[in-house]
Amino acid sequence: MLVKKEAIVLDKIKKEIRFKQTQIILCIGTSNFSLLEVLSDEPVKITDVIDTENLIVRRITYNRLSSDAKKELEKAVEGLVVKNPEKFVNFFNNAKPISLKRHQLDLLPMIGKKHRDAILEHIRTKGKFNTFDEIKNIEMLPDPLNIVVNRIIEEIQLGPENKYCLFTMPFLKRF
Considering the entire predicted model, what is its pTM? Predict the structure, then answer.
């Protein structure tokens, strides 16, 4: 399956590169939530979806985003999760233990042992979830959409320091 290289524009800034003012587009990849810096002279607006194929792209960390881009990040991530809910519902259905004492569901913010056990029990007795609304029916569980969005943003903010990448593409470790 060929993945389209698209990104959502978070901000555009001017930077001097080799004594020339150049437009830098700060964006987030739609398929793996990686933060990107794109060199392009194309006119773009914030929240536009752009094709990054054949553009000069560099992956960046959260600290390199402008303050405006940081403000747009949560909206962009939430939009991507809402657009593709089956991928994230499947995460709840297919989450596995990481070790003897830790489960992938434990890594989600606002999910404790009781929530984890209730989710696993539901899957075991009633079958897999089909929508976020079905997951919401777990007793006292916060909104699963917000849980996923918060985890993605946490992974983005941790960047290379993140030990467990559930939804984002991990950074390559340089030796």
Answer: 0.90
